[in-house]
Amino acid sequence: MAAPIDYYYALVSGFAYLGEPELRRIATAAGARIRYKPVDIGRVFAAIDTVAPARQSPARRAWRDSELARWAKVRGMPISVAPKFWPVPAGLASRAVIAAQEMGRDPGTLSSRFLRAVWRDDLDISDTETVRRLVAEADADAAGRILEAAVGDATAAIFEANTAEAIDKGVIGSPTFIVDGEMLFGQDRLSFLAEKLGVA
After folding, report:
1. Contact 5, 34 (CB under 8 A)
2. What's the mean pLDDT when you consider all of the chain?
3. Is the peptide bond between 83 and the residue preceding it cis, with omega within 30 degrees of 0?
4. Using an 8 Å Cβ cutoff, are 185 and 172 in contact?
């Protein structure tokens, strides 16, 4: 069994949206478990004195938008580089992914649905009813239990722990992957992850 992949990311991250399908492909091919660790990315940025993308200069934003568009073409994925609802607080959505994982459900399907909601479908994942609908779409059988757990103290504590852990490990942005102590930042580093795990 391959070493697990610790996946630190934000559900409002455009680069996480673009990278997640390839991450899942690599993990499946390697027989590696992805440990989904949604974080409060604002706190991660604050801890390393980084300006959040939404508050960067027009020149930086323009470069970022062009990179998103280029990588969307490479990945063959539709994208809105200026989503209608971005950035928005993603706490509830993050906790829903955590709850699904803790319950032994598939967090990847739910995570991907939230990322697509922001970057493809122009949906507001800070809206409670939107979150409820997306959870039901991703996992109808367990939606009620996932949503109930998502607002509980235990799940909130894991979300807090994920964020603190990311800061402690020196995570600098989303998405970040850690395998066997090696950190890889950015969906454009997924080829290095594949190489590390022996996947073509």
Report:
1. yes
2. 97
3. no
4. yes
